[in-house]
Structure to design on (413 residues):
């Protein structure tokens, strides 16, 4: 008597003559993130785009979750109000831990980091720019440096206004200037092109500043990619660690000028802080990106969709940095891709769409997500089992699998 173990895909290939499909790995079990709940009702959130299930997960398979991904055997991360967060090593690119790394959320002002990463190489910091009325077309009550129509400011002053005071007016000027003849629209197109080059595929900019707009989203993984590129630049590090700056006089409207201060409390309250960016809008809630160095390591933390109940955004970032610095140097659950790696991934032959992939068969009480191999004992007693018998067995198995299959999905918050 001869026993065979045949996968459903291989058996299907025996019947059809086609090559067996490569079985796909079952999704990792969902692990909820440690959270604290705000006392008030959660504000309404915009509906996020759908992920393409046929695309590989950027950064590693462990990041294909809407829940928690941390190295085995490490201390539990702190409980936060943020729906998504990520801690990564700025130098090695290792992702130390994360919650919902690829979940879509509105960015608020942390989107200014993408503006900086896109435009810093394009713009001369000594160039003087005249502000137009359209540059001041920002939402009423949103953060602004206080640029004046007809005022003249250097690009360096605009960068300081962007990163210290989170000026939405300065964001418009810088995006318009970087967009060249296409103006602000050209600047936004450049930002989206840069996000794609970095592999930040969940990021789509509709405003230069991060003010809420339909269809505008990012993820904590994308923000880590963008922040890593920013912190690799000397000029960005200098701007983001500046504590105060002087906005020059613009006579006759403003004969004296005024001083602005850095809003990122991490700089003055966290040892080794390297800077970052704060953000808040009604839809995005509190968002934060911050970086620090300790004992030769440089870590970055990104978080989205947080409430300032118990801990403010920068304090939640500080708690995650403490957790990350306490982990072993080789701890990781994934990595931040480089632009070269992204280019290679996109040049590789694409996977077949998920709809064309055969569902794994299910046996007994298990589902297709739980059981992907069918055990078939074929008894050969001096004669070959008729092919029609195998076909009948296969059809029965696949009918039962079809009834029980549950497609894996991402949990959304």
């Amino acid at each position: 008597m001869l026993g065979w173990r045949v996968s459903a895909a291989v058996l299907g290939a025996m019947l059809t003559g086609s090559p067996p499909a490569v079985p796909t790995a079952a999704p990792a079990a969902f692990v909820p993130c440690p959270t604290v709940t705000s006392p008030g009702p959660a504000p309404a959130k915009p509906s996020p785009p759908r992920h393409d299930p046929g695309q590989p997960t950027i950064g590693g398979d462990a990041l294909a979750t809407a829940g928690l991904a941390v190295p085995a055997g490490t201390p539990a991360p702190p409980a936060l109000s943020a729906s998504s967060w990520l801690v990564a090593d700025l130098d090695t690119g290792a992702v130390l831990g994360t919650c919902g790394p690829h979940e879509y959320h509105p960015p608020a002002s942390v989107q200014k980091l993408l503006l900086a990463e896109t435009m810093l190489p394009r713009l001369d910091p000594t160039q003087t720019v005249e502000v137009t009325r359209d540059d001041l077309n920002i939402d009423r009550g949103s953060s602004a440096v206080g640029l004046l129509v007809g005022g003249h400011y250097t690009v360096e002053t605009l960068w300081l206004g962007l990163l210290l005071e989170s000026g939405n007016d300065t964001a418009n000027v810088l995006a318009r200037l970087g967009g060249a003849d296409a103006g602000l629209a050209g600047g936004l197109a450049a930002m989206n092109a840069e996000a794609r080059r970095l592999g930040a595929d969940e990021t789509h900019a509709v405003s230069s500043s991060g003010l809420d707009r339909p269809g505008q989203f990012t993820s904590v993984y994308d923000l880590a990619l963008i922040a890593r590129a920013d912190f690799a630049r000397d000029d960005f590090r200098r701007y983001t660690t500046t504590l105060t700056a002087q906005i020059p006089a613009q006579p006759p409207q403003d004969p004296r000028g005024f001083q602005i201060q850095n809003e990122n409390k991490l700089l003055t309250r966290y040892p080794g802080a390297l800077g970052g960016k704060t953000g808040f809008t009604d839809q995005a809630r509190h968002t934060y990106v911050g970086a620090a160095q300790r004992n030769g390591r440089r870590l970055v933390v990104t978080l989205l969709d947080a409430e300032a109940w118990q801990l403010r955004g920068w304090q939640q970032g500080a708690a995650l940095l403490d957790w990350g610095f306490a982990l072993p140097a080789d701890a990781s659950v994934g990595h931040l891709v480089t632009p070269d790696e992204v280019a290679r991934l996109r040049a590789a032959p694409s996977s077949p769409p998920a709809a064309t992939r055969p569902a794994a068969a299910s046996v007994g009480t298990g589902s297709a997500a739980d059981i992907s191999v069918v055990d078939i004992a074929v008894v050969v007693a001096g004669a070959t089992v008729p092919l029609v018998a195998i076909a009948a067995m296969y059809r029965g198995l696949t009918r039962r699998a079809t009834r029980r299959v549950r497609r894996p999905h991402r949990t959304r918050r």
Observations:
- Residues 253 and 345 are 54 Å apart (CA to CA).
